[in-house]
């Protein structure tokens, strides 16, 4: 810590430079050091004990002090744009297991950290990502319907929800919104309010299967590579709508596809294994006798398709928009195992399409480092504001770690 403290102080000064008070900037730097010090638990009291301070200093800074965590995130996004120079913006979410029921947004729902349904909070995040680094630049805490008194007609239940919301200081304007809507809100913030460049959006099928999410990205001028279910349907790109002859009775028929759309698995199986090509998308670190280069390699096929859904707007001629269907068909597998839809350019190289589809691996690294090393899920406070501030500070701490890894030697403390 003595060796890297000057780096932490400089980074904290750039992130907290907008704070009005000097003591807030000092406590922000102190909190970052607490997150980065050795020690398994990164909640207030253990951190304060390691730092040799009263834990109420940290508690007050996170829960009640007047500083703008959105401004800190904006500065972090600006840093990431320059230092990381991301190839994509990756959307994901992660669970925070909880024992009680008073933490904001806590409910029984699927929790990836538990691998099952359990009592937890869920945070949705946006990451600026490239193959060598990533930064969690924005966060939202998912609020289930059970925390929204406007979602129930029973007045007694609504009153109980309002009591819980008041206890956790959930702002009145914050209501239940689907995770994909939270993701769009954050992308508006990152690429709109914060002025960051638009980059391809990558996410898992929890987001890719939401037609409204895909349409929302297109409306914002954002391309994407989104994992989807093989049960999603589409027409082959060469399919053309036709107009049936009008016999003069009733409303004239409009253009329509004569054949029904088929699921993505059928389209890939019809193309056949031979339509795919082997692609190396990353070189890992776990070398084996059969793979000394530790390369990540598989067979992929890319087809031009037209996703079919009643909510997708059609052109004047009745045609649906065209995009890529990417399917991974590993050696020895009887059928493809993973599917993506992408609006990246039609002339993109297959290896570039695959690399972006697979770049989500960085987020697994992010969450592991943030949770295991930097206490992302150790916050024990029960306020809405406190949670958002804590995860923001954990993301800043991770950014410092990224900068230290990229810098051969940190300067020694004078």
From TrEMBL:
Name the InterPro entries for this protein.
IS701-like, IS701-like_DDE_dom, RNaseH-like_sf
Q: Entry's SUPFAM superfamilies?
A: Ribonuclease H-like
The Transposase IS701-like DDE domain sits at 15-287
Q: Which PANTHER family does the annotation name?
A: TRANSPOSASE
Q: What is the designated name of this protein?
A: SRSO17 transposase
Recorded source organism is: Lentzea albidocapillata
């Amino acid at each position: 810590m003595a060796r890297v403290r000057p780096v932490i102080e400089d980074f904290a000064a750039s992130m907290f430079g907008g704070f009005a008070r000097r003591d807030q900037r000092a406590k922000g730097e102190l909190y970052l050091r607490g997150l980065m010090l050795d020690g398994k638990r990164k909640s207030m009291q253990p951190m304060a004990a390691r730092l040799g301070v009263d834990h109420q200093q940290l508690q007050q800074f996170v829960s009640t002090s007047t500083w703008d965590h959105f401004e800190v995130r904006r500065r972090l996004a600006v840093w990431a744009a320059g230092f990381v120079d991301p190839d994509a913006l990756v959307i994901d979410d992660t669970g925070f297991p909880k024992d009680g029921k008073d933490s904001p947004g806590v409910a029984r729902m699927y929790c990836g950290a538990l691998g099952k349904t359990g009592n937890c909070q869920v945070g949705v995040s946006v990451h600026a990502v490239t193959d060598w680094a990533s930064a969690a630049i924005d966060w939202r805490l998912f609020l289930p319907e059970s925390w929204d008194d406007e979602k129930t007609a029973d007045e007694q239940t609504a009153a109980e929800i309002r009591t819980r919301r008041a206890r956790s200081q959930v702002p009145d304007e914050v209501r239940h919104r689907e995770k994909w809507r939270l993701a769009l809100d954050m992308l508006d913030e990152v690429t709109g309010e914060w002025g960051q460049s638009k980059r391809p959006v990558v996410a898992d099928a929890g987001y890719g299967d939401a037609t409204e999410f895909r349409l929302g990205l297109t409306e914002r001028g954002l391309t994407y590579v989104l994992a989807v279910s093989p049960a999603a349907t589409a027409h082959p790109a060469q399919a053309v709508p036709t107009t049936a002859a009008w016999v003069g009775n009733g409303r004239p028929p409009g253009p329509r596809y004569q054949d029904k759309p088929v699921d993505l698995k059928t389209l890939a199986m019809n193309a056949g294994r031979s339509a795919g090509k082997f692609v190396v998308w990353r070189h890992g670190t776990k070398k084996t006798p059969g793979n000394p280069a530790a390369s990540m390699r598989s067979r992929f096929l890319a087809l031009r398709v037209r996703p079919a859904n009643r909510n997708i707007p059609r052109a004047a001629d009745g045609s649906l928009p065209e995009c890529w269907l990417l399917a991974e068909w590993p050696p020895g597998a009887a059928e493809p195992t993973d599917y993506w839809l992408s609006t990246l350019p039609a002339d993109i190289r297959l290896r570039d399409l695959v690399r972006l589809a697979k770049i989500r691996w960085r987020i697994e690294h992010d969450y592991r480092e943030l949770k295991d090393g930097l206490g992302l899920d150790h916050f024990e406070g029960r306020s809405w504001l406190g949670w958002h501030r804590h995860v923001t500070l954990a993301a800043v701490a991770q950014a410092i770690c990224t900068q230290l890894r990229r810098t051969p030697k940190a300067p020694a403390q004078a």
